[in-house]
Design goal:
Distance between the termini: 14 Å
Structural class: alpha+beta
Largest sheet: 5 strands, antiparallel
Number of domains: 2
Strand order of the largest sheet: 5-4-3-6-7
Strand content: 25-35%
Helix content: 40-55%
Radius of gyration: 20 Å
Length: 156
């Protein structure tokens, strides 16, 4: 098994947490910009209108950006570090479930004489929808915490 380096774009599109951390600030900044151009957002519950002069979108976008962007960089770094230092092993997918665009892939693999069962939250993409229970996959596993394992083909 040859070691491969994960691509940032593939991490962002396959890894559900990374996708959310990347999209949240962009959506809120888009809403703020839209209100600045006169688009009005109405609350479904109270009927309250939020327009450009309302600082709520600016404050919300700024706070979410300050929280999500550092967390996204930490997540990207942790995935890349796992690929750099992790152990490559052969595993088997035990289940694949999707609800709308989010999903969960569970897999098992032998490690240190034990069979480890773990999984990952994924975004629905062409690569993730091709995964099937019983399919053999290459995994990168943290040798200090074997529950932390990722499917190589989803990230490279």
């Amino acid at each position: 098994m040859m070691r491969r380096e994960p691509k940032t774009f593939r991490i962002l599109t396959s890894d559900y947490l990374s996708l959310l951390l990347g999209l949240a600030p962009m959506v809120l900044w888009a809403m703020y910009i839209a209100t600045a151009f006169g688009i009005v957002f109405r609350s479904r519950r109270s009927g309250t209108e939020l327009a450009g002069q309302d600082p709520v979108f600016l404050a919300l976008a700024a706070v979410v950006t300050l929280v999500c962007v550092p967390l996204l960089f930490i997540r990207l770094q942790r995935v890349k570090e796992l690929f750099a230092k992790g152990t490559l092993l052969q595993g088997e997918i035990t289940s694949v479930k999707f609800i709308k665009d989010r999903g969960r892939v569970e897999y098992k693999f032998p490690f240190g004489g034990l069979e480890i069962q773990t999984g990952a939250a994924v975004h629905k993409t062409a690569a993730t929808t091709r995964l099937r229970p019983g399919q053999k996959v290459e995994l990168v596993v943290d040798h200090q915490n074997p529950k932390r394992a990722l499917i190589v083909d989803l990230y490279c």
